[in-house]
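Give me the fold.
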Amino acid sequence: MKLKTSAIAVLAALPLMTAVASAAPTAAELQDRVYGSVFWEHYAPDNDKTKSLDWKGQNNGNGTGLNIGYRISESWGIRAEYVRQDLESEFSDADIKGNRVGMDLVYHVDSLPLYFVGGVKNYTTGRSASAANIGMGVNMFVTDEVAFFVEANRYQGISKAFGDHGVKLGLTYNFGAAPAAEPAPAPEPAPAPAVGDADQDGVTDDKDQCANTPITDKVDTVGCSIFTENSVSIALNAQFDNDSSVVKEQYHADIEKLATFLKRFPNTDVEIGGHASNVGTPAYNLALSQRRADAVADVLVNNYGIERNRVKAVGYGITKPKAAGSSKAAHAINRRIEATVTASVKEAVQR
């Protein structure tokens, strides 16, 4: 009888809701949208519960609850439910209060506001129990987002045998705007006349501000080669015999390379640093190291044409030894000149 009453409640609302179905959004417009519902439920427990002390004589009562759902497709959706129940007791004046939580799978009938539900529930009202439910409902949309609904369910006990019924009246809000209709595609524009790219750098000739860039160069948006600043350097090291400032022939090739570097980068200067081994007095070694630096500077200027004002010769004596100690090997290493020149060079970035 209770199941009949619940079904009649839903079916009685169907003609009214069908009459306004034309104002409802389409199933496609509701797809992929989240919705929330609040509702009131009249709940009718199984007669066996009403007579049972274990169930504290549960009798008819009401509940308030909410759903959070998601429309998976045009026909299917899922929802989570929470209900706070307040039932009368056949054996006491005190009401029986508790919670019901669960999940439902929802099937929406195409072109109708009718839907069917099936799911599982867990109760803490009176005693803990679980149930499977099946039901049906109808929606009445008043806007594209808002709908009233009525729904009836049968709750069949799983671990404990019972068959309860409930009828819900509620309000649903669908979040997110319905997808807008896609505009008709614009007609294809007439093809533009072809523009050439003579230097094949990827920038058409009408936009290319640097014609004939090398095909190996990476270019910017106007077709000009992209450059990067890199540091280049050269070092010169030459050693001398004991108590000598004569530049050995074997080092002339290295001095020539230094001269070539200085000519390639005319904005650079060079300092020739002369050094001596720690034999003799500091004053003598300072003068000896200066003569060594001057000798290399003279080769740069006289043999390879480097301007005198670009070459600085400085003697450091024994103040900057390269090798520690007083062995013959250490003395040989320290009888030397050193020079390093660094320049900045702009180089094209390669593709």
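Confidence is low (pLDDT under 50) at residues 17-22.
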